[in-house]
Amino acid sequence: MVEHITGMLALIGVLSLLCQWVGWKLRLPAILPLLLCGLLLGPGLGVLDPDEIFGDLLFPIISLGVAVILFEGALTLNFKEIKEHGRMVTHLVTIGAFITWACIAPAAHYLLGFDWAIAMLFGALVVVTGPTVIVPMLRTVKPKSNLASILRWEGIVIDPIGALLAVLVFEYIAAAADPTTHVLNALGLTLLLGFGLGAAAGFLTGIAIRKNVFPHYLRNTAVLTIMLGIFVGSNILQEESGLLTVTVMGIWLANMRGVDIADILEFKETLTVLLISALFILLAARLDSGAMLDLGFGGLGVLLVAMFIARPLSIWISGLGTNLSSKDKWFLSWVAPRGIVAAAISSLFAIKLESVGLEGASSIVPLVFLIIIGTVVIQSLTAGRWAAFLGVKEGSNQGVLIFGASKFSRELALILISKNIKVILADNNWDNIRQARMVNIPVYFGNPASEHATNYMDLSGIGRVLVISPYRQLNPLVIFHFQDLMGTEKVYGLNNADSASARHQLSESYLKRLCLFGENISYAKIATLMAKGAVLKITNITENFTFAHFKKRYGETAMPLVYLTKEGKVKVFSGVEAIVLPVGIELISLLPQEAQDQAVIQRAVDDEAERKTKALVEADAKVAAEARVVREAQEAQLRAIEKSRRKEEELALFEVDEKARLLAEKATLVQQETIELSNKLTEQEAVKKTAKDQLAATPVDDATRDTVCELKTGEEPKVV
């Protein structure tokens, strides 16, 4: 029997890890493989029976696990951050949560016949979405950055708020179900103890952390132990008040000034992943598949109300007064998958309520699992197509995540941001983060490869990761983490490997990625150059000023880092590819002091050469101008001669034409005179003929006849 229990515990641990890996590999919410695994081992094959294995320990195990989950979620509820993430998130976690609760609770009451108390508890349980299911979905869907940010922060913030609401409703139901106590007295004592003890425990724990009462290596363990002790103590003082107490304790710690809870969060996240995975397999294995089928159309109706009425209504009402478009709101209306927190809390509450004999409590768990399965499966499969149809998908991811917020990284980030490239600086060094925040650079304080960063760091629009930090032990973890997430070709690191140290011998596959900005470029080299006055400069590479001109001006010590294309794409230099730069780009480079000095000298040489060239050009221009004047004078003289010649030719032609005209006129006159003379002769002949004819017809004497004869002979008539 002992071996069987041990084997089952080991199997649950191995399967938890396997399901988390499958979810990560397939980019699906881990809840799906965990749910399938639990259903297969429990109702399916009958291999895993949690009640048989753990017996009476099952309820305490689930209680402690849920307490840790609620405490970890409460640690993330910073009220200041709620205000910082805009009106839409604030409305969703307040007005939207109430609308969802007000829609789903009546649906459960009228469609399934739940008692109002059970219906109100169920409505409070399914208000939460949770980052564990939202984040993997966002990675697959890739909506616009503002929509991804809204969904992410809604899941983060509503997680503890919804849990607190569910706990308060449960406390009321538990108090009302106990016939030996007055409802108001029991509820009032529970609330007073929960809020009072939780606030006091949070305050004292925060003081202990602030004053370093616990050594660093014991801090996480101490906080976890104190939290569990407070949980148990609160339950002893007032039954069922422990969950409220630890939730308030976590919220107090999250909002207490001067308390660094980053390490605690990271530790709790690791523990929570294990607890959630194991708990979900156990809870799914306890699930009665027949009970889920017994819900029938009523259960399906509640699911439809949650997806098609409650969620759209909460989005559109919460979106009043925001700058979201109708397409943005329709997309947000479709994405609201429920997560593991709802399943864990519902199972715990169901066990407790069944123990006091409350009718209908056994139906809570199957209905919650139905909502989880329906929302996660349906929305995971359709959200991407819905986003594409609405046109709200993110474009090409050109943003850059830089691990290491040194002076060099900050200056590079500022240049990229000035070119509208999204940049996030991540670092474990608070001083670096503080200086980056002072110049308005988006930052993440902590390990970017942590579970906390996965849920809380907004990677929408980020397409490349540059590891520029001095942390030799942490750099490989960050590089491998983001290589798995984005691909090998999107992640680069500086070559900080020390070949002389046997402690830091690294694999060949890892060393191949240590080629950021060049094969021999290390963090130490960049830090040294920056300390000696190196600066980052952006240069336009054009047809008139090519990369060859750039190298000539700044020399071989100039270090090209990144260039931006006309289309706004970011290209990072590495030792893997040869440097071939097209024209029309903006080159960002690191210029050591030597390169700057050479640039000054080269610029002076270029200026002198330009001055000489200009003088030579001016002299050539002067000579050309004088030659042009002489040429123009010669051309003018030639034109004058040509003009004179043309005038002489024209005059000669005119004279010839005039003579010809005069001759023509004279000939015309002669011709006219000839014609007139001819006409006169003709007329004389006619007259003579007429006279002759008349003479011939008239008798004449001898004298007249002699006269006529004389006229004919041409002799003068004789006078008698």
Dominant shape: elongated
Please give the radius of gyration in angstroms: 51 Å
At the fold tier of CATH, the topology name of the largest domain is: Na+/H+ antiporter like fold
Distance between the termini: 202 Å
How many domains make up the 3D coordinates?
3
Percentage of β-strand residues:
5-15%
Instruction: Count the beta strands.
Output: 9
Output the strand order for the largest sheet.
Answer: 3-2-1-4-5
- Number of helical elements: 27
Structural class: alpha/beta
CATH architecture of the largest domain: Up-down Bundle
CATH class descriptor name of the largest domain: Mainly Alpha
Helix content: 55-70%
What does this structure look like?
By secondary structure, the chain is α/β, with parallel strands linked by helices. It folds into three domains: 57-390, Up-down Bundle (Na+/H+ antiporter like fold), CATH 1.20.1530.20; 399-498 and 507-591, Rossmann fold; 598-712. The protein is built from 27 helices and nine strands. It has helices spanning 2-26, 31-44, 50-54, 58-74, 79-84, 86-112, 116-125, 131-141, 145-177, 183-210, 216-237, 242-254, 262-286, 289-294, 296-318, 326-334, 340-355, 364-390, 407-418, 430-438, 451-456, 475-486, 508-511, 523-531, 547-554, 593-697, 702-713; strands spanning 399-403, 423-427, 443-445, 462-467, 491-493, 535-541, 559-564, 570-572, 585-591. A five-stranded parallel β-sheet has the order 3-2-1-4-5, with helices on both faces. Strands 6-9-7-8 form a four-stranded antiparallel β-sheet, with helices on both faces. Strand 1 (399-403), helix 19 and strand 2 form a beta-alpha-beta unit. Helix 4 packs across helix 9, helix 9 (145-177) packs across helix 10 and helix 9 (145-177) packs parallel to helix 17. The radius of gyration is 51 Å and the shape is elongated.
